[in-house]
Amino acid sequence: xAGGARPxxxxxxxxxxxxxxxxxxxxxxxxxxxxxxxxxxxxVDGALHFVxxxxxxxxxxxxxxxCCVIAARGGxxxxxxxxxxxxxxxxxxxxxxxxxxxxxxxxxxxxxxxALYGEGAPTAGPAPYYVYEIVxxxxxxxxxxxxxxxxRWRFPRGRQRVALWRRTMGVATRxxxxxxxxxxxxxxxxxxxxxxxxxxxxxxxxxxTLPDGAPHSVPVWVxxxxxxxxxxxxxxxxxxxxxxxxxxxxxxxVAHDRPFAMAxxxxxxxxxxxxxxxxxxxxxxxxxxxGQSYPLRTGRVVFLxxxxxxxxxxxx
Length: 316
Prior knowledge:
The chain is an alpha+beta fold. A hairpin with a 5-residue loop joins strand 12 (204-209) and strand 13. The protein has helices spanning 10-19, 57-64, 91-105, 164-169, 192-199, 238-245, 275-290; strands spanning 23-28, 34-39, 41-44, 47-52, 67-74, 77-88, 109-112, 115-118, 130-143, 151-154, 185-186, 204-209, 215-220, 222-225, 228-233, 248-255, 258-273, 301-314. The protein folds into two domains: 10-169, Pnp Oxidase, Chain A, CATH 2.30.110.10; 185-314, Electron Transport, Fmn-binding Protein, Chain A (Pnp Oxidase, Chain A), CATH 2.30.110.10.
């Protein structure tokens, strides 16, 4: 270990997994030899997901043996995560994965028959694209600069299916309740009335949770990216630190010209965008409010929120 090198916090490693552009996936051939290819991956519902065509070599390997390794590189740390690939077929989560691919890579895909369909995925083979979740067993961090020390994080047996992001932020996984009356609807899509308010130049308030459990609420600019709510902030802001620890968030919004028209969304942060990936979203949000691009080109991050509950209502 280099003198003065500091240990790597898993929270920082998690950010790399969420924001890396390209990942490398290693699977096992039938005769035991390794197979390595680049893939595109997204973080959804607290887990890292990638896609593979069932007729590709990696798809056939995973059908026979789910053991795999995925690696990502970015900034001052290389990451390697060992585990198993579990196929995802549940429609609601597939739609969230599809939305995350659209937001992160500008890759439009549709959900059909338990898989994704689209064009332009050279790393995934031809459609259909099966979606896999990485269930981690151990992760390694390899610094590319002398200021960091190598690190290893273990995921004990019996807790491997605790979602990769939620585990590190201390948030237990839980099932989403069944639909309730329209006063508070469970959803993974934005109802039209909710989308209309978030698409307009209306100010919203984002509520997060402080370390002591108290609420923290601030006004923000917001936008819609697919089926997700987007907002921007400074990487060292109070709400950014809150979301690093606990991804749960509640957002309320009122129409600027009709203060009795309001909407509410409760959900979880599923992606944090930085650099070039964030700029496009920031500019779309800023243009809605000011008619111009966002003036600051550095020092901002974008959070994407996947809805779990949403409703809209007009009083009076």
